[in-house]
Amino acid sequence: MTEVLIHRLTVEDYYLLAEEGRLTPDSRTELLDGQIVNMFPIGPFHSDVVDWLSNLLVDRKRWTVRTQGPLRLSKFSVPEPDIMLLQPRRHNRALPGPKDVYLLIEVADSSLQMDKTKKVPLYAQAGIPEVWVVDVPHALVEVYRDPTAAGYATRTIGRLGGTVSPASFPDVVLKTSEIFAQE
User: Fold this and answer.
1) pLDDT at position 183, please?
2) Which of 14, 142, 147, 182 could, after both became Cys, cross-link 177 (CB 3.0–4.6 A)?
């Protein structure tokens, strides 16, 4: 019996492919656990929610908002979350890492299954303290906290008519109805 060997790309391999022109900016890919994964197309409702949330959160001085930018999770993973609240400093010499993140938000419509089954576990393993999955089809916000190597220990649901707040900034209260343009 022949053993199947799988080569996992490192972050350095991934960026080398881009430098060599094998991955172009139009490629719309992410590196997840050593595999190049195609990103889902961004639809109008997805874009609207990302823009709206970013604008709600950008008026703060306690963090930096980054939208759809890379995050170095590990030697093998560089996802591009929809929104991150990062420590308020420049990240111009290196990609931000897990210790830089207060809150990570994935807006999910066509990407819902990928976000919940592939990305959220990787975020937990990397120690991201809090992840929100904004579930567009079901108009709810899944809030994941307390990361462990096996996943997040705490999961709560923000439904329409309710509110959600980042654990690091409990004074910041967002209405779920406003996130989903129900107001």
Assistant:
1) 58
2) 182
Structure tokens at 134: 């904004």
C-alpha dist (Å) from residue 126 to 32, 39, 66, 99, 150 = 12, 20, 18, 9, 11
- Please name the helix (run of DSSP H) or strand (run of DSSP E) that holds residue 49, with its range, or none: helix 44-58
**Residues in Cβ contact with 146 at an 8 Å cutoff, skipping those fewer than 6 apart:** 152, 153, 154
Q: Is 87 helix (H, G, I), strand (E, B) or coil?
A: coil
Q: What are phi and psi of 114, to 5 degrees?
A: -60, -45
Span 77-95, pLDDT tens digits = 999 999 999 998 876 778 9
In the numeric block, which tokens belong to residue 77? 């993973």
Enter the DSSP assignment of 167. Answer: T
The two three-digit tokens of residue 16, written as one number: 């080398």
pTM, two decimals, is 0.90
Question: For residues 117 and 138, what is the distance between their CA atoms, to the nearest angstrom?
Answer: 17
